[in-house]
């Protein structure tokens, strides 16, 4: 029983991390039709900014600094690199792939390729007993952060003017533009939201794994893309469901089969969903 509880909590924690990355990625693609391969770099920038700030500030303030840096970086990328290329998808892919590679190289040049130990606050390094299982508290932090982001995104998308514009733009961007609404501001806002969520994921990934590397964002981005496809493009709810499913499948398969089987099981899950429901689990926005 204790093993089952521990695997479930670890899978939910990993799924929460995937959701934080995939939610912004899904909105960016759903609204702006940008397949942003540099999204993992947003995570890496947030992780290193939090790590640097954590040497001078308490952990919550360090995370706030990391998120702020992630937002500024994401907005700058949208304004300078992506906005001139909205009508040219191939160039978008080339630019975001190149930016990701260059960004990882810059992080490596600045702080080296070796893992940087990521100090956890005392309360996150402690454990809590749940139904006989000793569960690290960082799992609860990840789950709590994902729930907060999920609730915040739903409120934004359903209760605010710009949220309604984003939802409408995901469904039919041409119609929103025809109504005289400037969707470019919504594009920038969505990039800011995606940058904030990815940067927060970078900070929490450092806490979860105990260290950060320049390539951390790239490795997690693969699973984020899988979550986006399984959940449905542009659907935050679908992202949440898919992230939970992917995290649990990966953890249970790795434990009960062998190391590496979890990753293969996730790819198999992706193939099954694409065959049965090509539009994803929900196939709708929000």
Which secondary structure elements does this structure contain, and how are they paired or packed?
Blueprint lengths: L1 H31 L6 H15 L5 H24 L6 H23 L4 E2 L4 H4 L1 E4 L2 E4 H23 L1 H18 L4 H27 L1 E2 L3 H16 L4 H21 L4 H16 L10
Antiparallel strand pairs: 1-4, 2-3
Helix pairs in contact: 1-6, 1-7, 1-8, 1-9, 1-10, 2-3, 2-4, 2-8, 2-9, 3-8, 6-7, 6-8, 7-8, 9-10, 9-11, 10-11
Keywords:
286 residues; mainly alpha; two-stranded antiparallel ribbon; 11 helices; 4 strands; membrane; cell membrane; ABC_transp_permease
Structure overview:
- Helix content is 76%, strand content 4%.
- Helix 2 packs across helix 8.
- It contains eleven helices and four strands; from the N terminus they run ααααβαββαααβααα.
- The protein has one domain (2-217).
- The chain has helices spanning 2-32, 39-53, 59-82, 89-111, 122-125, 137-159, 161-178, 183-209, 216-231, 236-256, 261-276, and strands at 116-117, 127-130, 133-136, 211-212.
- Strand 2 (127-130) and strand 3 (133-136) form a beta hairpin.
- The strands form two sheets. Strands 1-4 form a two-stranded antiparallel sheet.
- With 286 residues, it is mainly alpha-helical.
Concise summary:
This protein is mainly alpha-helical and 286 residues long.
């Amino acid at each position: 029983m204790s093993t089952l509880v521990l695997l479930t909590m670890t899978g939910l924690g990993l799924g929460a991390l995937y959701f934080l990355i995939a939610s912004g990625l899904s909105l960016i693609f759903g609204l702006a039709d940008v397949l942003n391969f540099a999204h993992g770099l947003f995570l890496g920038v947030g992780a290193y900014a939090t790590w640097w700030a954590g040497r001078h500030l308490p952990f919550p303030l360090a995370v706030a600094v990391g998120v702020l840096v992630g937002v500024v970086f994401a907005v700058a990328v949208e304004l300078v690199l992506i906005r001139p290329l909205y009508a040219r998808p191939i160039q978008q892919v080339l630019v975001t792939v190149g930016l990701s590679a260059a960004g990882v190289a810059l992080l490596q040049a600045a702080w080296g390729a070796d893992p940087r130990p990521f100090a956890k606050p005392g309360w996150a390094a402690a454990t809590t007993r749940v139904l006989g299982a000793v569960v690290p508290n960082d799992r609860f932090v990840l789950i709590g952060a994902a729930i907060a982001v999920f609730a915040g995104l739903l409120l934004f998308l359903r209760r605010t003017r710009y949220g309604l514009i984003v939802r409408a733009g995901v469904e039919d961007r041409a119609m929103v533009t025809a109504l005289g609404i400037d969707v470019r501001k919504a594009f920038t806002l969505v990039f800011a939201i995606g940058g904030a969520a990815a940067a927060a994921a970078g900070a929490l990934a450092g806490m979860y794994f105990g260290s950060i590397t320049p390539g951390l964002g790239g490795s997690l981005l693969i699973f984020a893309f899988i979550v986006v496809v399984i959940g449905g493009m542009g659907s935050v709810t679908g992202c949440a469901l898919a992230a939970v499913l992917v995290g649990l499948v990966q953890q249970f398969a790795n434990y009960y089969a062998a190391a590496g089987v979890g990753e293969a099981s996730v790819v198999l899950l992706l193939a099954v969903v694409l065959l049965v429901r090509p539009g994803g689990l929900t196939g709708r926005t929000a």
